[in-house]
Amino acid sequence: MGPRMGELSAAAVVIGNEILSGKITDTNSPFLATELRALGVSLRRVVVIPDELQVIADEVRECHRAYDVVFTSGGVGPTHDDITVEGVACALGRSVISHPDLEAKLRAFYGDRINPARLKMAEVPEGAELITDVSLNFPTIKVENIYVLPGIPEIFRQKFSSLRSRFQAAPYCMKVVYTGVGEGTIAEFLNDTMREFPDLLLGSYPKINDPEYMVKVTLESKDVGYVERAFRHLLRLLPGGSVVRTEE
């Protein structure tokens, strides 16, 4: 089911050979998914790709066209494999330039220790916007609908937190039902609820060997009244004694 009318859609492009090889575990996309959900933004795609220029360009180009907002994670820095900026520029048909404000900031910070590797941090796609925040040492690069974020989780979270207010939309309202019976028993009632409430976001998540419950059912909508009616409808359908507890 796609995003609703008026709802922002988003994609995350996670870049790094170290993630694909298992050396590093990606924690940025789960963080982003949770944050965007709380903001009412529909994260529609997460893709992990290697540090290869053409692959980055192709994936960013596709996401740029298909989604309202695109976040990249990783591949920004002074080393040889930090080619995300170049990949984003290539995706948009732009050149890479040294941004004078960034270069001045780097020269002031490093002084005599400045070198070509450090100056690489001043490179941006031509026409990029720099988003500054007093809590951050370095601005975030934005070009069209693409936000270029670092891969280091602590900095990724700081950067996103500084951008958060840009994506505030109507939040989702969620209600949860935990059942003591399996999916096979409740499937017909879930299907009935979806027929009655076709715009509902309904999830069913079995748990194995949990003494408390067998299935966690989530009901979500941006319409508080709609999800409330669907919740009450499902509770009326479920067999007596099958509901362990609910969360509203």
Description:
The protein has helices at 17-20, 28-39, 53-66, 84-92, 100-110, 116-119, 153-163, 183-196, 224-237; strands at residues 9-15, 42-49, 69-73, 96-98, 123-125, 129-131, 140-143, 146-149, 173-179, 201-206, 215-221, 243-247. By secondary structure, the protein is an alpha/beta fold. The two termini are 24 Å apart.
Spell out the blueprint of helices and strands:
Layout: E1 9-15, H1 17-20, H2 28-39, E2 42-49, H3 53-66, E3 69-73, H4 84-92, E4 96-98, H5 100-110, H6 116-119, E5 123-125, E6 129-131, E7 140-143, E8 146-149, H7 153-163, E9 173-179, H8 183-196, E10 201-206, E11 215-221, H9 224-237, E12 243-247
Parallel strand pairs: 1-2, 1-3, 3-8
Antiparallel strand pairs: 4-5, 6-7, 7-8, 9-11, 9-12, 10-11
Helix pairs in contact: 3-4, 8-9
Considering the chains and any ligands shown, give keywords for the structure.
six-stranded mixed beta sheet; four-stranded antiparallel beta sheet; 248 residues; 9 helices; alpha/beta
